[in-house]
Amino acid sequence: MLRIPVSLRARPVILAFLALSFLLDLLSATPSRADDFETSVAKLNDQSFTVKEEAVLELVQSGDDRALAILSALQDGELFSHKKQNNVIVFSQEIDGAPHAIDVLTAADLGEHGKRDLKKITINNKLRGALKAALGALRLYSKDPDTRIAAAKAVLANPSPEALPLVVEAIEKEQDDAVREALDMAQAALLLTNGDAEERLAAVGMLSGSMDPDVWQVLGRAAGQEADADLAAAAQAALASIENQKSVYNLLETLFFGVSLGAVLLLAAVGLAITFGVMGVINMAHGEMLMLGAYTTFVVQQLMPNAIEYSLFVAVPAAFIVTGLVGIAIERSIIRLLYGRPLETLLATFGISLFLQQAVRSIFSPLNQPVTTPDWMSGFYAVNGALSLTYNRLYIIVFCILVFLALLAVLKRTPLGLQMRAVTQNRAMASSMGIRTGRVDALTFGLGSGIAGIGGVALSQLTNVGPNLGQAYIVDSFMVVVFGGVGNLWGTLVGALTLGVANKFMEPWTGAVVAKILVLVFIILFIQRRPRGLFALKGRAVES
Amino acid sequence: MTTSLSTSRGFLFGAMTGRATVITLGLILGAAVLVPVLNALPDGSPFKVPTYTVSLFGKYLCYALLALAVDLVWGYCGILSLGHGAFFALGGYAMGMYLMRQIGDRGVYGHPVLPDFMVFLNWKELPWYWYGFDNFAFAMLMVALVPGILAFAFGWFAFRSRVTGVYLSIITQAMTYALLLAFFRNDMGFGGNNGLTDFRDLLGFDLRSDGVRRGLFIASALALALGYIACRFVTTSRLGKVLIAVRDAESRSRFMGYRVEHYKVFVFTLSAVLAGIAGALYVPQVGIINPGEFAPINSIEIVIWVALGGRGYLFGAIFGALAVNIAKSYFTVAFPEIWLFFLGALFVLTTLFLPKGCAGLLSILKFPGLGTGMGFARKKEAGND
């Protein structure tokens, strides 16, 4: 009955009964039903294949968890009856090197068995077909919606005619929209391969919007068919429209990669946008502030090994404090003495960066340190077959936005931010208004360094945490700030996103390294056109 | 010690006078004679200088020439280039390409024309840009031309657009970083990650022989001496005065009618050529050139040699290069942990307490009345540099 779709359609009453009994099974497994299950299993050992087929059907309808294992064993020829133990149906399993018989109903070990003790339960081709459909059906009727979707996808990937009635039946009683959609797709794929001409065309229409790679295969096969010109043409058209959609999604994916790279660049550069952009300090030790932030993450994770999931929430403020304090110390001890001498500042801070690198090498080790990624950051969110977004990139983008907004808020909405802007715009005037410029300088530098430290926490999730981490980002950071225009946070944002997106869009054509080289060359040329960056500050003060 | 006396005499003779110049040239040429002679002594002699040391000091002399090149643009024209390592490396690669072609069929794969790495990458024929490098004269021309043309093009665009100060420093760094990435690629045809190595002959002489090592040392010393004279000539000429004017007050020089960008391009190109020559002499003495030479940190290290020695003093640059590199050789062997601490501290302390470097300190101590080096007038240092 399962093999012949027409017969199924012809007997809606039985179908309804089947579905009903199945639902009942889901709700309750009564003892009497369990007895039925045992009887059905026993029937598998019957001489007649017709009875066996009945038994298979009953097992499918039983809704019993054991049915799946029994039926797959039957399909694989690994189901036996035990001649010495009242012909109980058993699996054969090796335990301690000796074959043991395991009761399929109770899972009880019936002891070692000899080669001739067991008799294989045979199947014929007809029964094999029924079994295949039955196994597919078992999964389609699973209690777990995800398993049902997976079963529907399996049918879609490999549409065999036997599955059609099962899918039709499953659709009728399916309550879950997502599962139903998957089932509809499976049904369309089945009709496309097995239906009549009209059904096939309808199926193409049904499948044409899909973003599932398996659907593309099914359609591809249909498009390749010589026999039915109309169908082939329709499938071709559907494929073409899917190709179009796919390229749109590919574009979106590249854009997503680009934005996430831009977010990384922004996190790396935004601290520099404060120290270099706002204060005018050429901070070559900026990369090492990122590194310190990453190492702080490592230390925090070492300190709380049992709460790795939450470690990042501790690491962010910790990194801000650590690198902020280091920044303030550097500003007070060295940079303070070098204001107004940008090139000297560059050299001195470069010295500091060497110092910090070696310090990290001596304290930890020259090797990379393992920083764990929390579970909630791994994995990806699949929008559809053509577009999936990895969680770590998503979180980096969100985190980057938060950091940027927080920084803007500090600069625009707090007294400290007001004083910072005052000091950078006119130091002498600010000083005569009673602002302690030295203190503001230190705090500004501390803020920039602290933000760099937070950037380092994010980088620790993306790259190796080692003494050279900072070196890898220092050139990029400067490029972003200079490109965006010094002294302008929005410029840094636009600069980072532009460079990130440009990089990712060039990569497919040129490869990653050449894309990076081209971006560098572009910036060098861009600086010629606009020596003060994308969003230059205007006015006389700039020229001094 | 001061150089200001000689500036008034101008021209070529002026370039050769001045106590610092005489002492410097004397020391360089003295070394050029003495070291090879001591190396040629028979084994066991107490004064024998081992060949290893000859090559080591030959390498330092190349660094000194490189420092001279940086001092010319930074000390005299206020252009802080963080990309001079790129010109050095390009000169080195030009020399390395010649040396690769000299290997001929003695490579591991024994191919008569293609270097080993190309055979390994399954290349069938020499890329066009390798043509001519089997000719020594052509290769030497390229040693000067390639860095020179790059510097000219780069400088032409940058200086004409009035990219100055920190911005210029950062784009020079971007330039060397881009070249670093490019030369790391196998497709570039320069040996990728491994660079060019396994050299055998130079002009038919075995590179490993003592005689060639001595010859290279002498060549390096002569190149340094000639480079010094050239820089002296430039800096003491009228052109040199304009350069100093540009360094100290760029806008004012422009308002007075000088085409500032022309002066800058000239001096930047000359400096790049000197750096390229230094690189070409460096490669046969160390036996390898790889993309690591393009690393931005290398270029910054050159700047600290000059800063320590005293920018604006040509002999200061030479002294700084020698002092830092000798210290580096010592520290990296004796206390490898300490070296970066030392170098870092050197950067910080030099900029904080020795803004004019050792040479500046020297002139202050010896001539408190003069107090300034080449063109460092009483003007405050802030502003245009």
UniProtKB/TrEMBL annotation, chain A:
Main location: membrane
Alphabetic keyword roster: Amino-acid transport, Cell membrane, Membrane, Transmembrane, Transmembrane helix, Transport
Keyword Cell membrane: yes
Localization (cell): Cell membrane
A Pfam family matched in the record: BPD_transp_2
Membrane topology: Multi-pass membrane protein
One cellular component term from this protein's GO annotations in UniProt: plasma membrane
Any single biological process term in GO: amino acid transport
GO molecular function: transmembrane transporter activity
Transmembrane region(s): 255-282, 310-330, 342-360, 394-411, 478-502, 508-527
UniProt entry tagged with the keyword Disulfide bond: no
Family statement: Belongs to the binding-protein-dependent transport system permease family. LivHM subfamily.
UniProt cross-references to NCBIfam families, sorted A to Z: urea_trans_UrtB
UniProt-recorded name of the protein: Urea ABC transporter permease subunit UrtB
